[in-house]
Specification:
With 358 residues, the protein is an alpha+beta fold. The protein has helices spanning 18-43, 48-58, 67-79, 84-90, 96-109, 115-124, 128-140, 147-156, 160-180, and strands at 190-193, 201-205, 208-212, 220-222, 230-235, 243-247, 251-255, 263-264, 276-285, 288-300, 306-315, 323-327, 334-340, 343-348, 351-356. It contains nine helices and 15 strands. The longest helix is centred in the N-terminal third of the chain and has 26 residues, at 18-43.
């Protein structure tokens, strides 16, 4: 017997396809977002002053100093800190002239709010004129937050004018630092900023170490804590309490407690007896913080004393032992060092010398 198959003739419910549901949800979400943006924009429209500032900033896109741009710059300077947000936006413009002029204007306004944008421009902008203006402007701002950025630019920037401008800004910051700690600038032997936080700054004067941990709002003096006069000072990139100091005639010293106690770390340096041994500059590899490079020299002469650079020394164990990396190429003192990749960059006068690491 053959049995006929039976069929369900009732209508069957088929759920919508998953993609259709997701698409519908996405459309609704985008519509809601657009509505929210529209409501927010209507609730917070630009006021007349903000619209005026935007119009003035637009004039900065002119490469030549026209009457319109000159007037715009004067008005922006008068607007002061209120113009900073729009100028920071202009600092990321595709128009190189606008970026250059915005960086310049931020220096005339000199608001600390602009530091971050100027630091980024100094490190990353492809146009040397923009980097140069950023370096100048950072030196005009009454803040120590950009010292490390300017120190890097003074050695590592590929443009000589940018490097010189960074050095000039550092000189102005040094003057302000001496005023902040209430000493004669001639007695400020060395200073260093913690790479992890620019709020921590150390200033050495004589055997005293003056410290701030709140970006200069308050200072604390550790009297007679240093082994002697310091020619160079640096803070570890991983610990703001670890310091390295080049001490006049005594070689290298290290502190791991924020400068209260110091230990000599001279194994391998061969500090000569009877001569003033000078460590003129120190740098630490930020990717390998146990790798430390120093530039050394001696003071020679009886009547006319002259500094003679000698060597670059390398330590791979945080200063416990030292080895000669290379003989000095310069007749001038190396005042700043920086590590980049497998190369050491040394600033001597207006010249940057490059040494191979290892």
């Amino acid at each position: 017997m053959v049995t006929n198959p039976t069929f369900n003739l009732q209508p069957t419910f088929r759920p919508p396809h998953k993609r259709i549901v997701l698409g519908t949800i996405l459309v609704l979400a985008l519509a809601s977002l657009a509505l929210l943006v529209a409501i927010t924009a209507s609730a917070n429209p630009l006021n007349s002053a903000e619209l005026r500032i935007q119009a003035l900033v637009t004039e900065l896109g002119q490469d030549r100093l026209t009457a319109q741009r000159h007037n715009a710059q004067r008005e922006l300077e008068s607007a002061g800190v209120e113009a900073v947000p729009a100028l920071l936006v202009a600092l990321r413009s595709d128009n190189a002239a606008m970026r250059r002029n915005a960086a310049d204007m931020l220096g005339f306004i000199a608001a600390p709010l602009a530091s971050g944008g100027l630091q980024y421009a100094l490190a990353n902008d492809v146009v040397p004129a923009v980097r140069r203006n950023a370096a100048w402007s950072l030196g005009e701002i009454n803040s120590f937050a950009s010292i490390a950025d300017l120190q890097r630019a003074a050695v590592l920037d590929s443009n000589a004018l940018v490097r010189q401008t960074a050095q000039d800004s550092l000189a102005r910051m040094r003057t302000r630092l001496a005023l902040a700690v209430d000493i004669d600038e001639r007695n400020l032997n060395s200073y260093a900023v913690a790479p992890q936080t620019s709020a921590v700054i150390y200033a050495a004067t004589g055997r005293n170490l003056i410290v701030t941990r709140d970006a200069g709002k308050t200072w604390n003096s550790l009297d007679n804590t240093l082994p002697g006069l310091t020619n160079s000072l640096l803070v570890s990139p991983t610990n703001p309490l670890t310091l390295y100091a080049g001490v006049d005639g005594m070689g290298m010293y290290k502190s791991v407690d924020g400068g209260r106690e110091w230990t000599a770390i001279n194994e391998g340096l061969n500090v000569p007896a009877g001569a003033r041994y000078i460590v003129s500059a120190i740098t630490i590899d930020p990717t390998e913080p146990q790798r430390v490079v120093i530039s050394t020299g001696v003071m020679l002469g009886a009547g006319k004393v002259e500094f003679v650079p000698t060597q670059l020394m390398l330590s791979n164990d945080g200063g416990r032992t030292w080895n000669v990396m290379q003989e000095s190429k310069s007749r001038e003192a190396v005042t700043q060092l920086a590590l980049k990749g497998n190369q050491v960059y040394a600033l001597a006068g207006n010249q940057v010398l490059v040494y191979q690491l290892g």
